[in-house]
Amino acid sequence: MKKFLTTFFIILFSASALIADEGMWLVNLLDKQMYANMKAKGLKLKANEIYNEQGGAVSDAIVALDGGMCSGSVISANGLMITNHHCAYGDIHALSTPAKNYLEDGFWAMTNNEEIPIKGKSVTFLRKVLDVTNEVNVIADSLDKLGPRGIFFMRKVSGIMETRYKNQPYEVSLSSMWRGSKFYLYFYETFNDVRLVGAPPVSIGAFGGETDNWGWPQHKGDFAIYRIYTNKDGKPAEYSKENVPMAAKKYLNVSAQGVKKGDYTMVLGYPGSTNRYTSSYELKEKYDILNPVISGVRRAKLEVWKKYMDKDPLIRLKYADKYFGISNYTDFAKWENKCIARFKVIDELQNREQELQAWINSSPELTAKYGKVLENLKKAYAAKAEITKITEYFRESLIRGSEFLNIGQRLNSFVNTMNKANKLELSMDDEKVNEFVTDILDKVFTTSDVTADRELVKVMLGYFLKEVPRKFYDADFAKFADSLGNSPEKIADFIFDNSIVTDSLRMRTFFNSKHAISELAYDPILKIVKTMKHPQSTSLDDALLKKAGVDLSKERGLFVKALYEMKNSKNIAQYPDANSTMRLTYGTVGPIEPSDAVYYHYQSSSAGINEKFNPSDYEFSLTEKMQDLLKKGDWGKWGENGKMYINFLSDNDITGGNSGSAVLNAKGELIGLAFDGNRESMAGDAYFQNGYNKMVSVDIRYVLWIIDKYAGASNILNEMNIIQK
Q1: Is 515 among the catalytic positions?
Q2: What are the start-end ranges of the H helices in 286-402?
Q3: Which of the following is catalytic: 280, 580, 659, 697?
Q4: How confident is the model over 234-278, as pLDDT tens digits?
Q5: Contact criterion met (CB below 8 Å) for 637 and 706
Q6: In whole angstroms, what is the distance from residue 1 CA to residue 636 CA?
Q7: Per annotation, catalytic residue among 91, 193, 212, 222
Q8: Global confidence as pTM
Q9: 430 catalytic residue (yes or no)
């Protein structure tokens, strides 16, 4: 999930053999045993009411947003679609201005004419899935006869398959499972006229903000509503005033009956990726190197931004979406490492590898096929350990470090383009120059703060100069840094005081008069840009791996295939890693005991909002209207026993991309929206720890109450088929 992600939101698939049948399964593969297990948990639907190629099943109401960044569901006959607020965050932020700040104030369309088209937004429906493993293997074998496989081999295979099925009325996509052990062809229909209908203010949608991220209890009204439009024939179409609301093939009924302990829950959505078939060597690299670097450098970056965002609402508006996008994985990396250590996940993977090696050694055929895979993985990760740390610091501090350093890269590309075109002189009369200045350079000054970025560059350069050895510096940058005493503060100040692209007046003055293109080559920001391009991690990794005599990509593939084959031979139920294809997971509502002597109820209520409310803390502030409504305690028909329930826990198995997924009851009715996981489950990208994995969902009754009492948007409620008590 894109939780405050990029994310990404992450919570896990079951990796335990004891409960593997409850993991995230391909939606078209509901075998008899799995369906029987779902029925035993309380499911009331028939299998073909969940997925049915003929249409009319629950899966026909489930959508992927923006190619799978989030999930959503259709909740009315006229194409209303609901997802998480954090999935809509970027859209709401892009629409917001100081005069109309929809992020802070919320947005509600009371008529169709008030709905706002979102440029570039897409909603995708799954229409059919085919198992094409045999067909793909035949194609691969025929291509093998033409020569060795290259890096684009599977792209060729996909191209052939997609050409074979091009007469289908849908988009076609080939997906590999278990590193090529199985292949499925997916048929999709994508709609590009999507309009914002409603979203609460961020103080409701993200109440508790980063502080509560991955925690429990939470109290977020994490939802937003769009509408999907089609042409008059009901087909996908680009935005047009002539388009009409979608006549949905299937939409979900909404249950206002609430949840209780032990209730069946089911989620269908589009999880992005997991790594449940990882090796202990790969996870140890993440634990020892990647996560500490990422969490450390990104946290420092966020602290700089927050310092300036807290000072000025205009700066907050500039950085809100960027901060939101980075903060999620920053916390995830920290908590993932805590869980890897707490639950001894690396030891668990090593135990699995011992079992795998024993299985491999059990026959000459298996030994010939997989005999050296573990040895080679160990050798590969040892060979590249040092360069991995260096390149990760390099990426986080410079490549992903600063808005203005990124503009420096664009300036360098612009200079190269002009030189290739043999243009020796710069002039705003030149279309390319004018486009560069107005469409690229000007934008950075409206979306970033120069003072904040100056301080950020100082912090990022501090990491770079400390952690990246001088042998990786560009020669010009090394001289430049030496001339300023290798001081990150002095280097940053020199760049921001002298670069053309770090001051809007200086930039305009320069480009409004004629200059030789060669003058730009002396801009000090380009000295860093050259160094930004110097250590190429891929080529350095490849060189070290080649020296070690290991093809890491090949060995990782063999490892996954070996695990898959071993489990098959032992009749162990298994599901493939997430890869943005539709999956189904089921579980039950329930509490959690995260540590010794600690017990958490499975529901949070409005009482918790009042307890956390703090007008001086942005993350826990509320609008005056929300404060008044909470004081009145008028829950209408959405409350239960005098309470308004906000969020609830269940043990469904989901991951990034599932944000906004519909949480369904035993009858397939909408009872909530998945939006987060708990801190105890953060090792779940690689391993499921039974008893600690929880999904956090917003109770649909709170959503309905916000729409009703806060927004007064009865037009939205009237479209839904709401099942009352």
Answers
A1: no
A2: 291-309, 313-342, 345-360, 364-370, 373-394
A3: 659
A4: 999 999 999 999 999 999 999 999 999 999 999 999 999 999 999
A5: no
A6: 32
A7: 222
A8: 0.89
A9: no
